[in-house]
Specification:
The protein is an alpha+beta fold. The protein has three domains: 94 residues, Acyl-CoA dehydrogenase/oxidase, N-terminal domain (Butyryl-Coa Dehydrogenase, subunit A, domain 1); 105 residues, Butyryl-CoA Dehydrogenase, subunit A, domain 2; 148 residues, Butyryl-CoA Dehydrogenase, subunit A, domain 3 (Up-down Bundle), CATH 1.20.140. 51% of the residues lie in helices and 15% in strands. This is Acyl-CoA dehydrogenase family protein. Its EC number is 1.-.-.-. Keywords: FAD, Flavoprotein, Oxidoreductase.
């Protein structure tokens, strides 16, 4: 995992040791537990709790979270290198305490004083789980103006009615931030707000699990008049998209870094197979077609990493990063799918079975081209901006 063949020449020396420690933790502690963690239920919860305690004991917990929120304050540019190692397993961010980064930052920046006091510290400590519900079944996920979920103002606060689906971790969350219409009608561009809904609220219901290509992790939820306190409005009324845009840019970039980590893991498996697998006429790696898989995969990894780090740099500087994030998202998703596919091909039938992580890595790569905005959305958005601004 994260073999030196891939390298990371931009990683500062002071971060390299930390990145190595995180890579070792994911490799030695998280990866062996993936099947249990994937299964859900009490065993998964106990295992995740144990891993989190170990991460805290080793000083690896909540690395990118601000110190004032209970984290370790590792800057975004430095954390970007660590995130690749952390994300080599889908469960790495949860085990190491960085999975709460987006929600904790959003609530700290845009939540009411009561929301900040009540929820932020437990989120950072791993005592609460949060999720984000934006997409609806009858509306394209890329068009929030068609949002039909409605929040009606009451004397006590808000009452939410509607349905959301493909809510990551929604079936196990304690809190769900919901995009809802507080004013106007679809497809009006104004009147969308974000509300924080405790899942214990009457009227909140998990409808079903939505497996993605057979894997758990997504949910459909229903809001049957769910009551929410007035101070659980996140940001200003009708200004949800400004908060969402802030969250989405960082979130997409973090996913890209984690996809790079998983692509690196697939590459390592492919390289090891090519070197150690023997045929009657010599090692598998002697075949030119296998060598081509190695070359194309390494080329994709080496050319994608700078795109992702360019997006990180612009976000960290507070600059417009729409073009960089769009390029990074499409490139990283393609790279993960390409490398995982090549590794499966080199493994043959073994790459399709349960003895390697390759089926899960390929599934993530294929889903990555749709989740967080389909490739087509990012391609057209970047092209329009370049055509309009002449920015390269």
């Amino acid at each position: 995992m994260l073999d030196e063949t891939l390298g990371d020449p931009q990683c500062p020396p002071e971060v390299r040791e930390l990145k190595g420690r995180v890579a070792d933790f994911v490799r030695a502690r998280v990866v062996p537990c993936e099947r249990v963690l994937d299964s859900g239920g009490p065993d998964a919860a106990r295992t995740l709790y144990r891993l989190r305690q170990e991460a805290k004991e080793q000083g690896l917990w909540a690395l990118p979270l601000p110190v004032e929120l209970g984290g370790q304050g590792l800057g975004l540019r430095s954390y970007a290198h660590v995130a690749e190692a952390e994300g080599a397993s889908d469960h790495g961010p949860a085990a190491l305490g960085s999975a709460s980064l987006l929600d904790a930052l959003m609530l700290a920046r845009h939540g009411s004083p009561r929301v900040r006091e009540r929820y932020v510290a437990p989120l950072v400590a791993g005592e609460l789980r949060a999720s984000y519900a934006m997409t609806e079944q009858d509306a394209p996920g890329t068009d929030p103006f068609l949002t039909a979920t409605r929040a009606a103002e009451t004397e006590e606060g808000w009452r939410l009615t509607g349905d959301k689906w493909f809510v990551s971790g929604g079936d196990a969350a304690d809190l769900v931030t919901v995009l809802a219409r507080t004013d106007g009608q679809p497809p009006e561009r104004e009147g969308l707000s974000l509300l924080l809904v405790p899942t214990a609220s009457p009227g909140f219901r998990v409808v079903r699990e939505l497996p993605v290509l057979g894997a758990a992790g997504q949910a459909e939820i229903a809001l049957d008049g769910a009551a929410v306190d007035a101070d659980h409005l996140i940001g200003e009324r009708g200004k949800a998209l400004a908060v969402a845009a802030e969250r989405l840019q960082l979130g997409r970039t973090l996913r890209c870094l984690r996809w790079l980590g998983q692509a690196g893991r697939a590459f390592d498996l492919m390289r090891e197979r090519a070197v150690t697998r023997s045929r009657s006429r010599g090692p598998l790696g002697d075949l030119q077609l296998v060598q081509r898989h190695i070359f194309e995969s390494l080329l994709a990894l080496r050319t994608t990493r700078p795109l992702v780090h360019e997006a990180v740099s612009r976000i960290d500087a507070g600059a417009d990063a729409h073009v960089e994030v769009g390029l990074a998202k499409v490139a990283a998703a393609r790279t993960l799918q390409l490398v995982a596919d090549a590794a499966i091909q080199v493994h043959g039938a073994a790459g399709l079975g349960p003895d390697t992580a390759l089926p899960a890595l390929f599934r993530t790569g294929r889903a990555a081209r749709i989740l967080d905005g389909p490739d087509e959305l990012h391609i057209t958005s970047v092209a329009r901006r370049v055509l309009r601004t002449e920015r390269l």
